[in-house]
Amino acid sequence: MNNEECSASLERVQIEWLFYADLRAKYLHVVDNSFRLLMSNYSVPLPLRLNPGANKLGADLDGWLSATGLAKSPDVRGVIAPHAGYSYSGRCAAFAFANIDPTNISRVFLLGPSHHYYTPKCALSMATIYKTPLGDLPIDLEVIEELQAIGKFELMDLRVDEAEHSMEMHLPYLAKVFHGYPVKIVPILVGALNSQNEAMYGKLLAKYVDDPNNFFSVSSDFCHWGSRFNYMHYDRKYGAIYESIEALDRTGMDIIETGDAESFKKYLSEFDNTICGRHPISVFLHMLRNCSTKIKINFLQYEQSSQCKTMRDSSVSYASAAASKID
């Protein structure tokens, strides 16, 4: 597909949010949450897209953001935040998004892992706009075309875009935080990259970090523990299973805070921790290494969906971090 054909496709396609009227399970789980992406070639009329549930969603996000007690900072240039259903990770995610000062930000790069589609590359969205119950998030088509012209990115099939929840779950928070500000987004689906490609994409994207008008939202959950995830690492010296899981996660979080992509890769190789956003995080670490701006990652919140006490239990871990400019 050439650039002209790509532009035509981008103009034809929109992604809309469909908000379930019954709000079933109150954002219980990603596959049965209160909102899902709806592919369409037309704009759904506002009364059909929004219902009282949108007010409930907005109130929940406001409550979680306020409860963090965090102040917005212009030095925060990026976040790492979870992407599970909001009843599980919504509170934790707020500790990332509450740091954002939207005043001077005009573009958000959204990096999320691919859960359903295999690709050894990074893929770009073919949508023109993400419409959420809390506001529209137009996609920066100029940057999408600029990245596509490099020849290293593939285009994300619209069905893949619709099915992937890792970026989807960041959208309401972004719409809330940037409400009233003319921000555009650049969604990038990060595939199963090898170490060389993680470094390559990090170098390609590093120049965007040096533009203070750009922001980066990196999507990842942490340890998925239990037989249903085929991962049951347990180091008894830390006590109960959930304490072992936390120790494992915090070891990885400490390494991420150093900004050392190679050490993070060694950690993953040694423990095989089921961090689903390992590739987006690794790309982000390489971006920070290759940019001119000095940025430090600090984790602010850690939670687990439940406390595992027996080998029959299961849980998913969530962690939120802010990446801030330092002198």
UniProtKB/TrEMBL annotation:
The domain of life for this entry's organism is Eukaryota
Q: Which Gene3D superfamilies match?
A: LigB-like
**Sorted alphabetically, which CDD domains does this protein's record hold?**
MEMO_like (cd07361)
Looking up PANTHER family in the UniProt record yields: PROTEIN MEMO1
Family the UniProt entry places it in: Belongs to the MEMO1 family.
Protein name per the record: UPF0103/Mediator of ErbB2-driven cell motility (Memo-related)
Species of provenance: Macleaya cordata
Q: What is the lineage of its organism?
A: Eukaryota, Viridiplantae, Streptophyta, Embryophyta, Tracheophyta
